[in-house]
Specification:
about 80 residues, mainly alpha, 3 helices
């Protein structure tokens, strides 16, 4: 009797292994995130801050250094 080649031979073990591999296949891991930059003690950071015109004029009336004066006032208000 000739073998019917239209049907694939079915091996339950191979079918089970293929199903298991499909479910447990590892997904590629994302590359590790770059470490956060280390803050330098005492370094300042540039920010945008919205202030009332009167507050800004108060600190600018004594001339240059007004940003340092605002920083000092904020540190005092924060208790630092």
């Amino acid at each position: 009797m000739a073998m019917d080649r239209t049907r694939r031979p079915s091996d339950p073990r191979q079918a089970a292994e293929a199903a298991f591999k499909a479910v447990t296949r590892k997904t590629p891991e994302a590359p590790p995130a770059a470490p956060a930059p280390v803050a330098i003690p005492g370094a300042r950071e540039s920010v945008t801050l919205r202030l009332d015109r009167a507050v800004l004029e108060h600190f600018q009336k004594d001339g240059p250094g007004w940003q340092d004066r605002i920083n000092a006032a904020l540190k005092a208000a924060a208790g630092l």
